[in-house]
């Protein structure tokens, strides 16, 4: 996806007639190609890859939006990345494109055998309805001492990649 900041940065340097090549047709490469093609309509964007959907590594994946912190990246930056990604996917999940894009809301639990040092992760206020599980809920998992319940977005890449590729083509991209 193309965050508002990245999209604005790209448009500021509008490159008339420039040629851009994006390498890789998995979720990262294809998302980047869509971002560039939609943000810079006067640019020629080509996607190069050894394999395309349905034969990419991403096609076998589904992404459920929650995260563990990366130790060497400031939490505020990670929070911004998570918020941008979550908001982008939530907008798709709430749109008419949801079935074709394979992006849906998903509720569930994250359970822990030991109580984690941080019981409320940095993204807890960004997902929907985050809360600690009740003792009664935890009874279902006798080997676990703590849990979190929340609703987030799930992205099924076997649907998401073809949907992105269609957007890429409509924006004038080619492979």
From TrEMBL:
It is found in: Peroxisome matrix. Keywords: FAD, Flavoprotein, Oxidoreductase. Its EC number is 1.4.3.1. Residues 19-174 form the FAD dependent oxidoreductase domain. Its cofactor is FAD. Its main location: other. It comes from the Eukaryota. The keyword Aminoacyl-tRNA synthetase does not apply. SUPFAM superfamilies: Nucleotide-binding domain. GO terms for biological process: D-amino acid catabolic process; L-aspartate catabolic process. This is D-aspartate oxidase. It comes from Poeciliopsis prolifica (blackstripe livebearer). The lineage of its organism: Eukaryota, Metazoa, Chordata, Craniata, Vertebrata.
């Amino acid at each position: 996806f193309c965050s508002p900041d990245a999209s604005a940065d790209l448009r500021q340097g509008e490159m008339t007639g420039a040629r851009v090549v994006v390498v890789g047709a998995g979720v990262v490469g294809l998302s980047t190609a869509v971002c560039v093609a939609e943000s810079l309509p006067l640019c020629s964007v080509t996607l190069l890859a050894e394999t395309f959907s349905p034969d990419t590594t991403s096609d076998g994946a589904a992404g459920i939006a929650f995260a563990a912190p990366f130790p060497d990246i400031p939490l505020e930056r990670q929070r911004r990345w998570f918020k941008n990604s979550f908001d982008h996917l939530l907008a798709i999940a709430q749109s008419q494109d949801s079935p074709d894009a394979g992006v849906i809301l998903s509720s569930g639990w994250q359970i822990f055998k030991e109580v984690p040092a941080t019981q409320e992760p940095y993204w807890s206020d960004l997902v929907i309805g985050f809360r600690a599980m009740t003792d009664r809920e935890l009874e279902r998992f006798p080997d676990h001492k703590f849990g979190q319940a929340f609703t987030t977005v799930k992205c099924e890449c076997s649907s998401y990649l073809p949907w992105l590729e269609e957007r890429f083509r409509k924006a004038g991209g080619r492979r």
